[in-house]
Write a structure and sequence with these properties.
This protein has 458 residues and is α/β, with parallel strands linked by helices. 30% of the residues lie in helices and 26% in strands. Helix 5 crosses helix 8 and helix 5 packs across helix 13. The longest helix is centred in the N-terminal third of the chain and has 15 residues. The chain is globular. It starts with a strand and ends in an 8-residue tail after the last helix.
C-alpha cells in the first residue's frame, strides 16, 4: 500500500513507523526540516519538506499513485484542504483527517464532510477518542487498559496481577475448569518487558499484566477474579480543563448523576468558560501542583484524580501529590512514551497515551481485509483486532483446534448475530462472524490475510 502522511509530529511519526515496518510505501510531508530529517534518518520512509495541502508537494510525495492520505498536522484547516486537494487533483481513494475543533463536528454541520462538499472518508477527533477512553477507564476501576468491540458487547481489559492476586501460579486451563461460566479468555501476558501469547499450560505470576477478552457483562467479575474489587469512583478531581478535561466532565454529568466532580484549570479565562458550560461541576482556578488547590478540591476525600493537562510533568506530579494527600487512585494522560516505564514505581495506577489512541483509530482504516476495529498495545508490540469472517476465510468451517493458527495470535471472542461466543477447541467460525483476535506485531499481516476477500469470492 502506498500512503502519504501529512504531519511528522508524534502521531504522524508513529503512523509512519508502524506502516513502514510493515513494508508499506510511505511518504511523509512536514514544514519542519528537523522532523522530516528524523523520518529520513530513522524510518524506511521518504520525507518531504513543505505544506501537505499544496498540490506540488503532494505530487512530489507521490499522491498520484497513493492509495491513502492521512492528514494529521497540527492545523485542522491544513488537514482538510490536503484531503480536498488529494481528492480533486489526484483522486486518492481513501482520505483520513484529524480534526480537533469541535465546531466542525457538530451534528447540524454533518454534511460538511460529504463527497459533494469536502470529501473526507474518516474524521478523527483525538479529544473525543481520548475522552471516551478516559470514561471507559473510570467505569472499570482496576483495569489498566480497556477498549470495547462488537457493538460494545465484548471488551478487552488489561489487569495487573498483584502479590495477593488469587489466580497467580494457576495454569490457564485450570482456571477454565474452575470458572466454566465466566465468559473471559486470557489472550496475552506482559511480563517485564516481554509480551507473549499464553498457552493453556501457562500461568501468571505477580507483576504480570494480563490482557483479557471478555463479554462486557462479565468484565467486572473478571476483575474481581484477579483481586481487583475497587469501587466505582464517587468523587473525582480532574486536573486540566482543556478540550479533553471538559469533555470528560460534561459526559460524566450527562451519564452519571451520582458522581461529584471538581475540575482544576490553570488558565483563568478557560476556567470561567468551562464553569459556564458545566452544570453540577465545581471549577477551581489554579495549578494541579498547588497543594492548597488540591486540598480545596477535597483531594483527601476523593476516589480518583484524573490528570488531563497537555504537560506530562504536571500530570505525573499532580497524581503523585494527590496520592500523598489521601486520594485513593489516579489516572494520567502521558504523551511521552519514555515516562510510561516509570509509572508503577511512582504510584500511578493507570495511564493513557493519546498518540496510541489516535494511531489505533487510524490503523482501523489502514488494515486490509474486513477489519472493524484495532487497538494498539504497548506502543505497537501487539494489536487487538476485530474482523469479520468471509465465506472464503481459512478460519471458516473447521474446529479451532484443527486450524493451523500461528503461535503469536489468539482468538479471544466471537460475536455472532448479537451473541457472544467463548472460543474453545470445538468452536467453528461461520461466515459473517466478528472475531476478536489478540496478535503480536509479527502476526498482524497474517490476520489481515485471514480476513481478506479472496479472488475466488467473485
Amino acid at each position: 500500500m502506498k500512503v502519504v502522511i501529512c504531519g511528522a509530529g508524534q502521531v504522524g511519526y508513529g503512523i509512519a513507523e508502524r506502516l513502514a515496518s510493515e513494508r508499506n510505501d510511505v511518504s511523509v510531508i512536514d514544514t519542519s526540516h528537523a522532523l522530516v530529517q528524523a523520518i529520513r534518518d530513522n524510518l524506511d520512509a521518504r520525507g518531504f519538506v513543505g505544506h501537505g495541502s499544496q498540490p506540488d508537494v503532494l505530487a512530489e510525495a507521490g499522491a498520484e499513485q497513493a492509495d491513502m492520505i492521512i492528514a494529521v498536522t497540527l492545523h485542522d484547516e491544513v488537514n482538510m484542504v490536503a484531503c480536498q486537494v488529494a481528492h480533486s487533483l489526484f483522486n486518492v481513494p481513501t482520505k483520513i483527517a484529524r480534526v480537533r475543533a469541535q465546531s466542525y463536528l457538530r451534528s447540524h454541520w454533518q454534511d460538511l464532510f460529504s463527497t459533494d462538499n469536502m470529501p473526507i472518508d474518516v474524521i478523527i477527533s483525538p479529544e473525543i477518542e481520548v475522552g471516551e477512553m478516559v470514561l471507559r477507564r473510570i467505569a472499570l476501576p482496576g483495569a489498566m487498559d480497556a477498549v470495547r468491540f462488537a457493538d460494545d458487547t465484548i471488551a478487552m481489559v488489561a489487569i495487573e496481577c498483584r502479590e495477593d492476586c488469587p489466580v497467580v501460579n494457576t495454569p490457564l486451563d485450570q482456571l477454565t475448569d474452575l470458572f466454566p461460566d465466566l465468559n473471559a479468555t486470557v489472550v496475552g501476558i506482559m511480563r517485564g518487558e516481554r509480551l507473549f501469547i499464553p498457552t493453556s499450560a501457562d500461568h501468571m505470576v505477580p507483576g504480570d499484566v494480563a490482557y483479557v477478552v471478555a463479554e462486557r457483562s462479565h468484565v467486572k467479575r473478571a476483575l474481581v477474579l484477579f483481586g481487583h474489587e475497587e469501587p466505582e469512583a464517587g468523587r473525582i478531581v480532574i486536573v486540566g480543563g482543556g478540550n479533553i478535561g471538559y469533555y470528560v466532565a460534561s459526559q460524566i454529568e450527562r451519564r452519571n448523576f451520582g458522581t461529584k466532580i471538581r475540575v482544576i484549570e490553570a488558565n483563568h479565562d478557560r476556567a470561567v468558560t468551562i464553569a459556564d458550560g458545566l452544570k453540577r461541576t465545581i471549577v477551581l482556578h489554579g495549578s494541579g501542583l498547588d497543594q492548597s488547590i488540591l486540598r480545596e478540591a477535597d483531594i483527601g476525600d476523593s476516589d480518583l484524580l484524573v490528570a488531563l493537562t497537555n504537560d506530562d510533568k504536571v500530570n505525573v506530579l499532580s497524581s503523585v501529590m494527590a496520592k500523598r494527600l489521601g486520594c485513593q487512585g489516579n489516572l494520567v494522560l502521558l504523551n511521552n512514551a519514555d515516562y510510561q516505564g516509570f509509572t508503577r514505581m511512582l504510584g500511578i495506577d493507570a495511564f493513557i497515551n493519546p498518540r496510541s489512541v489516535t494511531i489505533s483509530r487510524v490503523l482501523q482504516h489502514v488494515r486490509r481485509g474486513r477489519i472493524r476495529a484495532v487497538h494498539s498495545i504497548q506502543n505497537g508490540i501487539a494489536e487487538v483486532i476485530e474482523a469479520e469472517a468471509l465465506e472464503t476465510s481459512p478460519l471458516v468451517g473447521e474446529p479451532l483446534r484443527d486450524l493451523d493458527l500461528p503461535d503469536n495470535l489468539r482468538i479471544g471472542a466471537i460475536f455472532r448475530g448479537k451473541t457472544y461466543i467463548k472460543p474453545t477447541g470445538q468452536t467453528k467460525i461461520r461466515a459473517k462472524d466478528r472475531v476478536v483476535i489478540f496478535a503480536s506485531a509479527s502476526a498482524v499481516r497474517q490476520v489481515e490475510q485471514m480476513f481478506r476477500v479472496s479472488l475466488e469470492f467473485f
